[in-house]
Specification:
mainly alpha
Length: about 110
């Protein structure tokens, strides 16, 4: 589960960083605000990926998902991207648990 979640957060950090110039040029957000919000969320995603060994990483990752969807109020396309990454985040939980359970069963059998 941890590897899937870290992949989602890694790609999401790139998308959040690339949303910064969009916020500045398209949404006319002040550069200081756009840099602090977008790059702050991108850094938080990277930190969360590094902390996925603990429950704190998953909580921070969920906060990143809420923040990414919330950016849609400023840049409407972020609703789509934020919801897509939130869906990937949930899928990482569901599929990751199934993979972990299958590995545990395989280890017991072999």
């Amino acid at each position: 589960m941890r590897s899937l979640a870290s992949i989602v957060l890694g790609f999401e950090s790139l998308v959040l960083a690339l949303a910064t110039p969009v916020m500045i040029s398209v949404a006319d957000v002040r550069p200081a605000v756009a840099l602090s919000v977008c790059l702050g969320l991108a850094v938080l995603a990277i930190v969360a990926a590094g902390l996925l060994r603990n429950q704190v990483g998953y909580i921070l990752g969920s906060v990143v998902q809420v923040g990414a969807v919330g950016l849609g109020f400023v840049v409407p396309v972020m609703f789509v991207l934020g919801l897509a990454f939130a869906a990937f985040w949930v899928a990482a939980f569901v599929l990751g648990r199934r993979i972990d359970e299958a590995k545990a069963q395989q280890a017991q059998q072999g």
